[in-house]
Design a protein that fits this description.
Number of helices: 2
Low-confidence stretches: 1-11, 13-35
Strand content: 25-35%
Helix content: under 10%
Largest sheet: 7 strands, mixed
Shape: elongated
Oligomer: single chain
Length: 424
């Protein structure tokens, strides 16, 4: 009798434990790789006009580890878009499958998913936004779906493992040649894998889009005579790029186009009519530059080019803008074009200038324009009407400032500058 009671108690205890385990398992969410599809409860989304857009995740990364499959429907509506930053920073996601009905992937939608190695995109996809997969450092290859007609800037920015780009059969907007993505008509260079070390840009190309070579392994590039524009940051931070011959016929160089590159010399042809801000800034190996461009103003173009010693500025220059040569510590002399009328904020600050000849038509000298230089003396032309506070601050070697006869705003006596009211 005692044994029977003990046996019944044991059976009861085991049954209770089994039941408890069932309830615990039922209440525990399964990971994405176990279920195959992320549950609706893990996603933030909107539904408009019967179409769902994924805008984020609910906060937990539980469902975004390993192989992730996004659901075909949310709230009873087909998923047609993944919005800006929607699944950014899913750092444990290794592969991704998008719903068949997705047409749009928004800006930085999957950026910084650092373990992502592969992506399955639907053929219905039409648009990939800027920086969509930026810094997905484990991504090795990508096929542009047949339906894609829009491809944003920097889609694969800093994807350091990306070696292969291809286009699905039937894509009418883009094509791949020598590993680089071009528009189908071969007039624009759209995207290049970060691992690219050399490229002959195809003849017929008129534009290199923004960020195309940004922080890539590029060591050499050949630009075609057909090239007319270089986009913003197109070659920025290409540290191994020592030379780039800019073709005659080039019209526009975007802001920061060669910023922090390894260029040692550069010549900007006379055909250029636009040089963006800081186009060659922080090129620490740049020693010589000839700007023959047909421009009237330059700003920040060579700031922090610490090795720069030899510069030719365009004859038609009117304004030397902010920070043009700021912190070019090796620059000891420069010829300022005769037509320059204004020198902007910190234009020559922290340079190695020991002397400078200011043009006779100069009217304005901006704040800190020559501060912290090695100038020993300065002669202001008669045309100068405005000198900002601090224009020559902390020039410890500066012993005198003289003013040309006939200046209506300033005068000098024994190397001391006065305004017409007699104030120093």
């Amino acid at each position: 009798m005692e044994r029977t009671k003990g046996f019944r108690a044991l059976v009861g205890a085991l049954a209770a434990a089994a039941l408890a385990a069932v309830f615990w398992m039922a209440g525990t969410p399964a990971r994405a790789e176990e279920t195959g599809t992320v549950p609706e409860s893990a996603l933030v989304y909107t539904v408009e006009n019967g179409q769902a857009t994924i805008t984020g995740k609910t906060g937990s990364s539980y469902y975004f580890t390993g192989s992730v499959v996004l659901p075909e429907t949310l709230g009873g509506a087909p998923v047609t878009a993944v919005g800006k930053n929607a699944l950014r920073y899913c750092s444990d996601m290794t592969s991704l499958t998008l719903p068949a009905g997705v047409k749009t992937v928004g800006e930085a939608a999957f950026a910084d998913c650092t373990k992502l190695t592969s992506v399955a995109m639907p053929s219905a996809l039409q648009s990939i936004g800027a920086y969509a997969f930026a810094r997905c450092k484990a991504l090795t290859g990508f096929t542009v779906p047949a339906g894609v007609t829009e491809f944003g800037a920097g889609v694969f920015l800093e994807c350091t493992s990306l070696t292969t780009l291809s286009c699905a059969a039937g894509n009418t907007a883009f094509t791949v040649k020598d590993g680089a993505l071009y528009t189908r008509d071969m007039t624009e260079l759209v995207c290049v894998p970060c691992s690219t070390t050399s490229l002959n840009v195809a003849s017929g190309v008129t534009a290199i889009r923004d960020y195309v070579f940004f922080r890539s392994a590029l060591e050499s590039v050949t630009l075609p005579s057909t090239l007319r524009s270089i986009g913003e940051r197109a070659f920025s931070q290409c540290a191994a790029l020592k030379t780039a011959v800019l073709p005659e016929g080039l019209v526009s160089i975007g802001a920061y186009a060669f910023d922090e590159s390894g260029l040692e010399s550069v010549t900007v042809p006379s055909s250029v009519t636009e040089v963006g801000n800081a186009a060659f800034a922080r090129c620490e190996s740049l020693q010589s530059a000839a700007i023959r461009a047909n421009v009237t103003e330059l700003s920040g173009t060579f700031e922090y080019c610490s090795a720069l010693t030899d510069v030719t500025l365009p004859a038609g220059l009117k304004t030397i803008g902010w920070n043009l040569f700021a912190s070019c510590t090796s620059l000891k002399q420069i010829e300022i074009p005769a037509g320059v009328t204004a020198i902007g904020y910190a234009a020559f600050s922290r340079t190695g200038l020991t002397s400078v000849t200011l043009p006779t038509g100069l009217t304005n000298i901006g704040d800190r324009a020559f501060c912290l230089t090695a100038l020993t003396e300065v002669t202001l032309p008669a045309s100068v009407t405005d000198i900002a506070t601090g224009a020559f601050d902390e020039c410890e070697s500066l012993t005198r400032i003289d003013c040309a006869a006939g200046n209506a705003a300033f005068s000098s006596s024994d190397g001391v500058l006065y305004n017409k009211t007699g104030t120093v």
